[in-house]
Structures are given as C-alpha cells and as structure tokens.
Amino acid sequence: MIASLLIANRGEIACRIIRTARRLGVRTVAVYSDADAKALHVREADEAVHIGPSPTRESYLLGDRILAAAQATGAQAIHPGYGFLSENAQFAQSVLDAGLVWVGPRPSSITAMGLKDAAKTLMSDAGVPVTPGYMGDNQDPAFLARESAKIGYPVLIKAVAGGGGKGMRMVEKAEDFADALASCQREAAASFGNAHVLIEKYILSPRHIEVQIFGDSHGNVVHLFERDCSLQRRHQKVIEEAPAPGMDAATRAAVCAAAVNAAKAVDYVGAGTIEFIADGSAGLRADRIWFMEMNTRLQVEHPVTEEITGQDLVEWQLRVASGEPLPRTQDELSINGWAMEARLYAEDPARGFLPSVGTLDLLQFGGSPGGRIDTGVYQGAEVSPYYDPMIAKVIAHGATRDEARRRLGVMLAGSAVWPVRTNANFLVNALAHPAFIAGNVDTGLIGRDGEAMAQPPIASAGALARAAGSMVPATDMPGFRLNAPARGTATFLLDGDPVDVALPAAGAAAPALTAIVTEAGQTWLLSPWRHEASHGGGGGDGAILSPMPGRIISVDVALGDTVSKGQKLLTLEAMKMEHSLTAPFDGTVVELNAIAGGQVQVEALLARIEATGE
Length: 614
Ligand code: ADP
What we know:
Blueprint: E1 4-7, H1 11-23, E2 27-33, H2 40-44, E3 47-52, H3 63-73, E4 77-79, H4 89-97, E5 101-102, H5 107-114, H6 116-125, E6 133-134, H7 141-151, E7 155-159, E8 168-171, H8 177-192, E9 197-201, E10 206-215, E11 221-233, E12 236-242, H9 249-265, E13 270-279, E14 289-295, H10 302-309, H11 313-321, E15 338-345, E16 347-348, E17 354-355, E18 358-359, E19 362-364, E20 371-375, E21 382-383, E22 390-398, H12 401-413, E23 416-418, H13 424-431, H14 434-437, H15 445-453, H16 461-469, E24 482-484, E25 489-494, E26 497-502, E27 515-519, E28 522-528, E29 543-545, E30 550-555, E31 562-563, E32 568-574, E33 577-582, E34 587-592, E35 599-600, E36 605-611
Parallel strand pairs: 1-2, 1-4, 2-3, 4-5
Antiparallel strand pairs: 6-9, 7-8, 7-9, 10-11, 10-13, 11-12, 12-15, 13-14, 15-22, 16-17, 18-21, 19-23, 20-22, 24-25, 25-26, 25-28, 27-28, 29-36, 30-32, 30-35, 31-34, 32-33, 34-36
Bound molecules: adenosine-5'-diphosphate.
C-alpha cells in the first residue's frame, strides 16, 4: 500500500478520500487556493500546501503546481478526485513521468474515452450496443442533414468533446437542422476548442443508467451493479439511486456484461463508469439500452454503490493503484437493499437556482438510520463563488426503495441552513413526486414539473409558534405589536414579510432577538415586527429605525429630499440579507443619520420622514 497521498481536489470529495486514506494509515496532503485556506479538506489532511489564487485556472487546474506540491511534501501518489484534472490524460502522464503513482486509469484509457465519437466507435467494435446515429469524420452540413433524416427525427447533435451537459442540441424536424448544427458547432468551438459533432437518435422517455466498473493491473475487471441517475435538471444529476427501479435480473446481467466488455476494451485499471441511455417507454429492456459515454474517474454519486455493496470504492482505488488485485471477485459482490443520494446545493430554486454564496452561519442536517452525509463544509465555513456550490451529498440506505426514499426525505426535511439558501425543499418535493415514488422517472421530469417543485412552502403555524417561543418575550421588545393580546397573537417579520403568529404559552429558556424557522428543508428568519421594514406599510411618526443590528450598504436619499410612500430610503445588510427601508408615507427627509458603510444597532434612528402637508 502506498504510504502517502496528495489529493488534487477540494470540497467533499477531498474529505471523502482523506477519510479512507486515514483509515488505511496513508498520510494525506491537501492542496488549497486562497479561498480555501480555512476549508474542511485543509483542516482534515495531515499536511496542506497552498497552490495559488482562488480561480481554478490559477490553482486547482495547474498541474505543475500540484506536482511540485507532491514533490515538496514527499507524497508518493496523487488522487485527482472528480472534475478538475481527473480526466486530463496529459496530467496523468506527467504524474507517472515524475515517478509518482496516479490513482486512476492509464492515460491511454482516458484518451480513448475522451471524445464521444471515438469512444462510441471503440465500444461498437467491442460489441457494446451504442446509441444509433452517425459518428464519423464527415462534418459537411448537407451530409449530416441526410444522416439525420436516415436516423429519423428527433435527433440530438452532440459535440464530441462536450461534457457537463454542454454542446448538445435536440432537433425535432428537418427544417431546424441547419440552424441547430451551426449553433452547436459555435458553442462547441468556444467551450471545448473542437467544433466536431456527432448525431444521435434522440431517445424518448430517456433514462440515465450507469454501471460502476473496476479494473486492476492484473487484468481483472468486475462491475458493482448499476445506478439510476434519471432525475436531472438541465442534463445535471439531482438525485441518484442504486439499484435502478424496474431493472430485472436478465436486463441487469446484459447491461453489466456490456459495461465489463467496454472496460476490457480499453485495458481499464481503477474506478470507471459506463453511462447508458435507456428508452424507458416500455420499462427497462436489454435491447433498448445503449452506451453513451465512459467516465474515467470516481463519480460524484459513487456512495450509493458503496451503500448497496458494502464496499469502500476509495479503498479499492488505493489498493489497485498500489498494485494489489481487486479486493473482491464478481461472485463475492451482491446488492443489499437500496440507496439514494441527493445533491444539496447552495442555490435558490425560487430565483432560478441562482448560486447562493456566503457564510454558513447555520448548518444542520436531519438524521436517520442508514443515513450518511458527505460534505466539504462546516458550520461557519464559506460557500465561495469560485467553485461548485455543493454543500453536501445526503445519502440514505434502506431495506427497500421506499425506505431509502423516506429516510432521505427525513434527512433533507430536517436540514437547516442559514443565511445561504439551499435546494433542500426542492429535493424534498422531488422525492414526493408521484412519478418518483413510482420509480417512473425520465430525464425530462423536472423540465415538465420542476416549477411546482421549486415553489417554497408556507411556514406552518406550529413551526412559527415554536420559533417565536424562543425569542425575547413579546413585552420586552421595543416596538413590538400585540394584535390581540387575549388570543396571544403577535405580528412578526418572516424574511421581511409581516406574519401573524399564535404565541406559545411558555417562555424560552435562552431568548434570542431573532429565530430560525425550518420546515421541509426550507429555512426562514423570524424577526420582531417593525412597520418601517414592512414594505412601507404602517406609518407612525415617520421615524425610520434599524430593525436589526447590521451595516448600511447604501443611502438612496439626501436630507431635505421629497420622497413618496414606498420609495427606497436606504439598504441595510443584516444576517447576510439585504433589507430595503422605505418611506412610510409621502413626505420630506427631515433627519438623516445613516452613512453608507456604517454599522448600526437595533432600534437606531436612521432617518425621519415628515409627512407632506403637516
Ligand atoms: P455530457 O458529457 O455533457 O454529460 P452525455 O452524453 O453524458 O453528455 O449526456 C448528458 C445527458 O443528456 C444524459 O444523461 C441524458 O439525459 C441526455 N442525453 C444524452 N444523449 C441522449 C439521447 N441520445 N437521447 C436523449 N437524451 C440524451
């Protein structure tokens, strides 16, 4: 076994690799950029080397820096994780040339699978069924249009060098072909430096089925069964599971055998995934599953395979890279129960899934038997704008598919993240979709029903009351408004919007100024009611008070200005959120104490508006 390992990656996968290396007694070396100086993978590794500024092109993608870090620390091997340099044959070769161990396949295998057309030709020659289509050299538009007509519409134009769902165009009819081809070629040239395309039959009711394979340097290849990654958003995986719903033994045997043949055709060593596309319109059938591409690395979703087989795939990688044979033969591998993984992202489904960056002031996950969290962050860590905003992979194992699904739902629904926004509630909704429950998912499900899944829930009376109960007793709050004291109802602000809450009888042990409300994976901030903050409602004496301690980020009016009701006066940043304070009525700014950049306390008088005509 190798004695030391440099991990040329960051985030959850770096932490995942460190975990196994430590268990096996392998010394670990992390690398990090400026933005990652305090990252979890840096904390967890035995040693860490700074390799450059935050942008990936100046750090994690610089092979020379990483090699130098390995040499400086005496690391014996390099694990690339996924993404970054993991499928860069040139980098793999330079690692080998430097006399180090590359935890991955031979550079020639990476190259053979690097371009989609060459990979498909190779697979077809090895007897692996490939998606019907044209994958030759002739790139003449008129010729490609004739090929598309032969294949039959709809067709999919794919950049041979494409990846990550980019460089693909679905074409429904012949008239649209020329334009789609030109636009796909432009995108391919710009994104991948290679305008070459192939044409494929567009599979209706497509399901994404992939097989985990493993090879060693002694010529052995096994598969570790399939995963189903059909729940996708814009060709990106959202929830993955193993095994695939509706896969019968004969179909499984055929697909897994095809995957093993594919791996043998490229003398594969290490962890790899053969991706297939299936026409799921009549269930999974061996004659309707075709090779799509091979990923020559460990996949993001490898944990679901680990959970059903009881194997540690990173351990397998390290053993194989050390020259050992595969830890298990095919006969010694079997499927136990079901596993599901959801990708928890720092993104806001209500705002078109925009990444949400910032400090994770609150980070909690729901617990469940059979539950596993693979994460690269901790409470107090930053989600930086430089990298993939994944917070964690939430994984659940159960005896049956439904048990795994319910357990995953419990873990996601019990998660609480603030002030960074997450897709937890979206994932909870996806898990509860009737088609998902039935195991009847095609890659277009989110495209069709995703808008409903992205609708945030409404906080229940019970969740609000619990949060309100942990706040400062109502009577102690300056400016607090009791609506109906007899019924114990009070108005609060929920993410800045007024909401009436039935107060619980008992007071709180540790009263807080604000409270976090969580339900179904959604997180809100509950704060004391202030008429100034409630979108210009109310009125009062025209005093604009700071609703929370925070920082003024802009002042939009000057002393003496005439303002109209609802006009923005200034913006306050508090709890990592921006709050606009608006004029309660038409009037004049007669007092202004706010300065952009200044810190303010709660209840500070920021401005005063005098009503027109008074
Ligand atoms: P990338 O390398 O960009 O990930 P893939 O070839 O793996 O591209 O395809 C990504 C996704 O696109 C698949 O998971 C599937 O959802 C969809 N897809 C690919 N090929 C087809 C096809 N022939 N018909 C229908 N959908 C397809």
